[in-house]
Design goal:
Elements (H helix, E strand, L loop, with lengths): L3 E4 L2 E4 L4 E7 L8 E7 L6 E7 L4 E3 L7 E6 L4 E6 L8 E8 L6 E3 L3 E6 L1
Parallel strand pairs: 2-11
Antiparallel strand pairs: 1-3, 3-8, 4-5, 4-9, 5-6, 7-8, 9-10, 9-11
């Protein structure tokens, strides 16, 4: 059984920074795409950023210029550096990963990020 495990969440002040990490619980083949989604209470889960094994990235407009996604293919680990955090960024952040053209999607349990005003 393979699970994605997120870490790095916490409480931060307005304008602060956090770095999230996500890695599979056991050894597995390199994921084609890994990314981060977030969900605030009462809202739909939304895409934050994704990155392929070739380092192609995609960001939600709301985080462009503030968040940076990166990965370590050897460790199948994805990171999300979050700077200039705003209260609107408060949510549970979920890690996601997929193999190319795969019908299976892997998800983590989520890590809480709270930004105080």
């Amino acid at each position: 059984q393979v699970q994605l495990v997120e870490s790095g969440g916490g409480v931060v002040k307005f304008g602060g920074s956090l770095r999230l990490s996500c890695a599979p619980s056991t050894a597995i083949s390199t994921f084609y795409v890994m990314g981060w989604y977030r969900q605030a209470p009462g809202k739909q889960r939304e895409l934050v950023a994704t990155i392929t094994s070739a380092n192609s990235t995609n960001y939600a407009d709301s985080v462009k210029g503030r968040f940076t996604i990166s990965r370590d293919n050897a460790k199948n680990t994805v990171f999300l550096q979050m700077n200039s955090l705003k209260p609107e960024d408060t949510a549970v952040y979920y890690c996601n990963a997929d193999f190319r053209l795969s019908d299976r999607s892997f998800w983590g349990q989520g890590t809480q990020v709270t930004v105080s005003s």
